[in-house]
Hints:
Blueprint: E1 3-13, E2 23-24, E3 36-50, E4 53-54, E5 59-67, E6 75-82, H1 87-98, H2 110-113, E7 116-124, E8 126-129, E9 136-139, E10 143-150, E11 157-158, E12 169-180, E13 183-187, E14 191-200
Parallel strand pairs: 6-7
Antiparallel strand pairs: 1-3, 1-14, 2-11, 3-4, 3-5, 5-6, 8-9, 9-10, 10-12, 12-13, 12-14
Amino acid sequence: MSYRVRGTYLESCNCDAPCPCRRIDGRPGGRSTQGICDGALSWWIEDGAADDVALTGLGVVLAARYSDDEEGSPWTFALFVDQSGDEEQREALGQIFSGALGGTALEHFPWAWKVSDPLGVEPAQIEIDHSPGRGWLRAGTKVSVRVSGLYQGPETITCVIPGHEREGRELVVDELSVETGPLAFAYRGVCAYESTFDYAG
């Protein structure tokens, strides 16, 4: 199956802003603030398809955890695909955003190239608003993120998941909440990041 998906991206994790996992002023990312990274990531597809399956106007959310201090710690992740899509669309989203279809997604998704513990792909009511500097997202009652504003530091910051070649902005959230299986956490005042994405394979 060939695919190309393009759109907007928003993530949040429990690191202090600016997130030390990101590339800051050209320096490679390092250890997360707490050593354990809890996060939620979201993609809104403004234009996309997998073979002849249209994916425009659909959203995807991923909740994840990994440990920097545990050698070989897996990316434990749960993937939520837009329940407004039909079965073919949901299947395609699951394959693309898990990394199963390969392509350029493998350059961006750590859970695809590192040891991972996938918790499954679940249809959910995906609500995404990636308005610059004030975005929010929800995956049913299981994932919620709400941006409170921009991080005010002077650094230039990029993130591997949308791509270091793409411009983005560091943010701060007043809500990061996940409650799904072994992933259960809630934070306020932690970091976030907004950008765009373009994956193909």
